[in-house]
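Entry type: protein chain
Record version: 2
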Amino acid sequence: MSAIAAQEPRLNEEITVKECRLIGYDGTQMGIVPIEQAQRYADDEGYDLVEIAPNADPVVCRIMDYGKFKYDQAIKAKQARKNQSKIETKEMKFRPKIDVGDYTTKKKHIMRFLDAGSKVKITIMFRGREMAHPEQGLSILERLAEDLKDSAIIEVQPKMEGRNMHMLIAPLPNAAKKKKAAERQEEAETPLEDLAHEEEGSEE
């Protein structure tokens, strides 16, 4: 039997064993019965006899609407693929000589994209003589990778494409947990001003 065929259970007359442990349509355990009797039960109810545990002794069969079961499985698989395809790829563009303020602002946007579950394509745009110094763009990407190491992973390493340099990053699965942990730690740290007020109170 091929690997593909093995994925599909045997139905009705395809089941060749003499007896089976039968499960009813509503999940009721009906005990061990001859296969012909199990098939009659399924036929009487207008459903299929499906071999769901061929390696058991005796095999386990269930009375079910196999067509509906397959349809429901297909719908679930389609929904799972749809959910996976919702992962967006955003893009954030930088110039090689970006100032600190712009860098900080763009980094915050990237972090917001990552928190939303999106991948982010970082693009360094070179113009004119800037093409002679690709290391400036690379240093920005390396700095970003370091700043975002608790939130993202590099999926595509920095590379030049024409006049632009690209890097693709994706959110870490546990980035949200780390972020919350950091926020809790920050809340737990007492500001210096509060300590000063406490000392003043103790002197009184």
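Comment: The chain has seven helices and eight strands.
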